[in-house]
Design brief:
9 strands, 7-stranded mixed β-sheet, alpha/beta, Rossmann fold, two-stranded antiparallel ribbon, 279 residues, Helicase, Ruva Protein, domain 3, elongated
Length: 279
Amino acid sequence: MGAPPNTPPPLPPLRDVIRDFGLGARKSLGQHFLLDSNLTGRIARAAGALDGVNVIEIGPGPGGLTRALLDTDADAVWAVEKDRRCVAALQALQDAYPGRLHILEADALEQDLAALTPAPRAIVANLPYNVSTVLLLQWLRQADQFTRMVLMFQKEVADRLTAASGSKAYGRLSVVTQWRAQVRPLFNVAKEAFTPPPKVASTVVEVIPRAEPLAPAKMTDLEKVTQAAFGQRRKMLRSSLKGIGLDPAQAGISPEARAEDLSVEEFCALARQLAAQTA
């Protein structure tokens, strides 16, 4: 008996794909391939119900997570890959799932993902480590275009994303991310799970964009304020914010406080003050 009509043909092991297409991971591209199907399946399931959703994956590499995403109820998977070698390796996977996998050879930093596919859309990816935070900040600028993001970061970065005020990990990335989205860590992934292993552990993080930002502010102003405050995080705000002409007392914040003491809402108050002064 043949396979059921909607069942894709058997796919070669990912290690064979890496060998056959010469996919030695390139440090310049931040590549660390995840080959464990149990882990890739767990990441795909972490994205929740995907029926009717277009899923965007960044840096699919040999296609481990891509396979797991194609096994969900997602309408389609859109894979954005910069490495031409990986694009060639993904062709067989595209043939196995006709009409469901779309491959774009491009640099994700230069792509408007919202223009890539119709809504609703989600991003699920094992991000290239060297550009992970830049990509996230880019997507947060258009956060209302995505239902959710399930992303893998280096654990240190994930800790910063989810850090509470008063902690050492709390910083610019914490404030901007939590202002625009609800973010929580889902699970850690040991470095030995990757080929080649990175130097540190990783964490899968869920980022759910808020319907409205946590408090009124412009992202550009919030970035300027947090850059000034955390750029000299050991100094009191009266000193660290002097360079951008802010007196925190005018926003109802103690000039003797330090950056890590402020809540996201208080940083938004400073961002509004900056906007008023530069209007």
